[in-house]
Amino acid sequence: MNDNEACASELRQHATEHRLHGLLAHWEEVMADPEQMRWVAQMLVWEGAERSRRSLERRLREARIGRFKPLADFDWTWPRQCDRAAVEELMTLEFLADASNVVLVGPNGVGKTMCTCNIGYQAVLAGHTALFTTAGQMLSELAALDSDSALRRKLRQYAAPDILLIDEVGYLSFTNRAADLLFELISRRCQTKTQW
């Protein structure tokens, strides 16, 4: 296989990945003209970049992380009990491969939410799906559903992301119903080997 054939094969693979069926239907005539081949190569680069950009924007919007302080701006000298090495290890996202759960524990104002948002943002940048919510908001939403089918649908939505970030879990005293819903959600996520 010469260089032109290898290039054409690679371009065809990209066109297939992007589902450009009209282009693929006329592939032989396009590849016969070197000028058209260069144009198609540039178009596929643009298409790939645009799709990546839109995918990132969509995943960030769906993650509902909102505004947060970047980890680079965090003052590691206070609070002293904050384990920087552990947080930096979480930012590598290795726990996602193991389907491990992570629980950040500490008093008010030490940066648990900020760390959580940074981890979620890093996951989205790495191509994962994420969802940030508070325990109160999530459990209120689940408890308010009046039909089993609506509840199952909403539980599937919360179980679907690669990483589910639940803030303020320790601030609530759960009713039996809320505790059952939280247990059901965690069980569903464990069954699909995703994180919360």
The portion of residues forming beta strands comes to: 5-15%
- The gross shape turns out to be elongated
What is the SS-derived class?
A: mainly alpha
- Quaternary class: single chain
- Give the strand tally: 2
Q: What radius of gyration results from the CA coordinates?
A: 23 Å
* SSE order: HHHHHHHEHHEH
The biggest beta sheet is recorded as:
2 strands, parallel
Residue-averaged pLDDT? 90
Strand order of the largest sheet: 1-2
* Helix residue percentage: 55-70%
Spatial separation of the terminal alpha carbons: 48 Å
Number of helices: 10
| Spans where pLDDT lies below 50 across 5 or more residues | none
Task: Give an overview of the whole structure.
By secondary structure, this protein is mostly helical. The chain is 61% helix and 5% strand. It is built from ten helices and two strands. α1 (3-17) runs parallel beside α4 (34-63), α8 (135-143) packs across α10 (176-191) and α9 (148-159) packs across α10. It starts with a helix and ends in a 5-residue tail after the last helix.
